[in-house]
């Protein structure tokens, strides 16, 4: 199987490339290194079944493949908010480019959608049938609305051109290879804890998220791609919900840190609760996360410690 992974030099993308290569597949990684890093795929370069294309997906490209995982998109709020127009272009023009490619070569395409399509949800836990509560003009809208139109484009290409589509709505994923400057909560807290700096909680820390270890997310994505008759959207996330304050305490404890917790202003439109209903993934994919938050954080702390030294 020849597989294209857009955003393959990013956090999730690089783990996915590695997993697919280990399964014996031929993998093409496409990335413009906006948030991805060459060092994430450095260990894969010797593999004869691995190729890398430096390309900005907002510009059309044609590659002959059997499957496409479309992951290209900055996922961290600080990065997508730094370039909101580019982010919207990627989810619209980029999506059209990659869907056109899927149509021309008859490839199956899986879109990495997000829990952000639910915005600041009013229903808990979030089922795939929930339409969400998104501020269309807020600071997160370039990402949230972009991902929503990307889902809409996927369905339009299926309807008009019979493209073989799959939509996975990924919830907060963490693990080794998160970028140091990523700005998301797990990497921020771990780096602060390891460096003995203050742990910066935005708001009161009562907001919740549900954190899924990267190894579980990868298995979910691959399973989703493999089943023939499931279009989705399907939630992929860990159903164990926790407050940001609890996460901070856990990271301080697991990293044996002396860091103090400090409270900073809550960013605008920061979702209050987020928790996936994963009954659909359990039923159709026989998938649910296996890594506990303690084991996952330990693994991630160990990786950050090694990188720091
Ligand atoms: P990431 O920022 O580490 O990876 C994104 C990759 O896309 C990077 O390598 C980046 O350089 C690349 N990219 C950005 N713009 C591009 C462009 N114009 N052309 C080509 N490549 C481009 O983020 P991630 O956490 O690995 O997320 C990967 C995907 O999963 C994203 O689509 C994201 O929206 C989705 N997702 C991630 C999470 C999460 O918790 N990590 C949650 C929900 C959805
Ligand atoms: N957050 C925090 N301190 C940080 C980084 C993030 O308290 O240093 C909070 C953030 O306000 C949000 C939660 O942690 O409520 C998750 O943030 P992240 O950026 O990781 O992901 P998202 O908001 O997209 O789920």
From TrEMBL:
Membrane-traversing stretches: none
Domain spans labelled NAD(P)-binding: 4-300
Cofactor(s) annotated in UniProt: NAD(+)
GO MF entry, a single one: NAD+ binding
Membrane topology: Single-pass type II membrane protein
Pathway(s) served: Nucleotide-sugar biosynthesis; UDP-alpha-D-xylose biosynthesis; UDP-alpha-D-xylose from UDP-alpha-D-glucuronate: step 1/1
UniProt-listed PANTHER family: UDP-GLUCURONIC ACID DECARBOXYLASE 1, UDP-GLUCURONIC ACID DECARBOXYLASE-RELATED
Name the UniProt record assigns to this protein: UDP-glucuronate decarboxylase
Organism in which the protein naturally occurs: Candidatus Kerfeldbacteria bacterium CG_4_10_14_0_8_um_filter_42_10
